[in-house]
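Handout, page 2. Input:
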Amino acid sequence: MTDHTATDPATETFVAHRNLLFTVAYEMLGSAADAEDVLQETWLRWVGVDLDHVRDQRAYLVRITTRQALNRLRSMKRRREAYVGQWLPEPLLTTPDVAEDVELAESMSMAMMLVLESLSPTERAVFVLREVFDVGYDEIAEAVGKSPAAVRQIAHRARRHVDARRPRRTASASETRAALESFRRALETGNPQALLDVLAPDVVLLSDGGGIKRAAPRPVVGAEKFVRFYLGGTAKAGATIACEPTVVNGNPALAVYVNGAFDAVMAVRVEDGRITGLYFVRNPEKLTRVTSETPLTLR
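Output:
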């Protein structure tokens, strides 16, 4: 983009829709780094387009982005299979106002991003474009290389799959913040009863260290097992834990500090006032944007 001036129509259009394109790519890939690469590929193709022949520039850009993200998603399968331990999406620092867009915030949550991981690449693209961004079936068909009729069937199948796995009820941002505040105090004080009070009995912890930082190799299921896992780890390490509220993927979360150094992001799923899902990202390769980037305003 450095060879084009700010008044260039191609540049102006791309910049105007950049956040939307990034969000589409991120929701398809679960990786901010890969989403940025997709945007670069989209840009390289966009500057070669004759704009005089483009009826809807936004739709055209979304189409390019979707195709590039699909190509990358298919090639990422082998990388995911070789990943050490549990894989979680890369946390994305977002502005608090993203939570006001309930559908977008839910679709970007760690819980939903993991549900999307269970879809095929085409199903994921169709679901994201249709359910999150309300793109028309004809436009989606052009983006994924299917007929509109086939896209409708794929959308129905993907929606049914997601509905069967999504949380029963999406907690409001205020409910999540309240549960997180109780959880934060319990983590910092190491109070086992306080932890049990805020966790659902069947809570599930998923932790991602990427083979670089200590993390549970498998899900930790149950409040009591989580308490033993957490307190055993901090006691053994003699660590001092501190947490700061933040907003990740459009939802309240915690930035976790160990002995004063930033160590992890903790996202949660809250249902009926208690935490039912914990998503603990420690892999430092996934945390660079949380510490170095300005929070994103999406769409």
